[in-house]
Amino acid sequence: MTPSKNLLAILTELTADAQQIDQAQLEQVQELILKAKRVFIAGAGRSGFAARAFSNRLMHLGFTVYFVGEPTTPSIRENDLIIIGSGSGRTEGLVNMAKKAKSEKAQLATITIHPKNPIGTMADALIQIPGISTGDKATEKAPSIQPNGSSFEQLSWVVYDSMIVDLKKKMKQEQTDMDYRHANLE
């Protein structure tokens, strides 16, 4: 058997990038989740796929959670939280969602490469992930063998899962509790 060089290079990159993520930032977002009446999750493109998976896991933990854009998503209000996954932090539709959420006095958290871009500057809490988003100019980050944005999307998925592990412990949930909430109309 010959191991995949590309796969090993991607895992090496993700491991190096994961070491740059601040646990305190994860804990701040987790506290907002625990205090929120309802949690709204948003993301576009491939980042949206990772965010959608996070909303699914939050539902498994028993949170009232909505993925923005679904027909059953209600309006956001005070005491709610929106978490936006956006590598660039400037995707127009997501910026507009952040502005609307803040105008309704909801809390805002984001997972982003660029905390100084519009979504990050509005956020009550954020998790900064190293990476290069589509349209970025050259940075100090080592070049990736992957297309721009891929490492952000992959690492955001793992960050979301890491927070689920912490939230599961904080909520004293067992796997059987999560399994009970898993879809059964499959």
From TrEMBL:
Gene3D superfamilies: Glucose-6-phosphate isomerase like protein, domain 1. SUPFAM superfamilies: SIS domain. InterPro entries: PHI/rmpB, SIS_dom, SIS_dom_sf. Signal peptide: none annotated. Pfam families: SIS. Residues 29-169 form the SIS domain. PANTHER family: 3-HEXULOSE-6-PHOSPHATE ISOMERASE (PTHR43443). Belongs to the SIS family. PHI subfamily. This is 6-phospho-3-hexuloisomerase. It comes from Enterococcus hulanensis.
